[in-house]
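Dear Dr. H.,

I hope your travels went smoothly. While you were away I took the liberty of generating a structure for the chain from your last submission, since the lab meeting agenda had it listed for discussion. I wanted you to have the full record in hand beforehand rather than looking at slides cold. The sequence, exactly as received, is reproduced here:
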Amino acid sequence: MLYNYQLSTINYQLPNEAVSLAKGLFQQTRQDIASPKLQKDLIELLETIMVYKLPNKGREEIEAMFGLSELKQTKVYQEAKMEGIIEGETKGRMEGEIKGEIKAKMEAVPGLLKLGLTVEQIATALKLSVEEIQQVISSNN
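The corresponding predicted structure, in token form, is as follows:
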């Protein structure tokens, strides 16, 4: 709870005070957060806040200021980062497959109509609603 309060107050601190508070929060995150993914996410959030809080400093300067470059080289951080990448790729692939399936079904509608199938038969065969089939028909006209 105290962590949440400290995190929310960084924006209201003067830059020097914010740096001091952020250093403590970075250290606290490393020590108290057991989940590598949550630890990585919180550190990235803190880093982002500090990038905006210190607009004259570059990301590398901020990483050096808080010792983040060493942290980002640790096995725990790298594993959490890889988990996030794999999770994102898997989600993107699944969304792409779903969109592809829907597109293929929609493209099949005109041909099925030409074969003499009814809207209801097409909806049943393609596992779509009658309304979806009617939308495809009206968009093709």
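Two observations you may find useful: The mean pLDDT is 85. The chain has eight helices and no strands.

With kind regards,
E. W.
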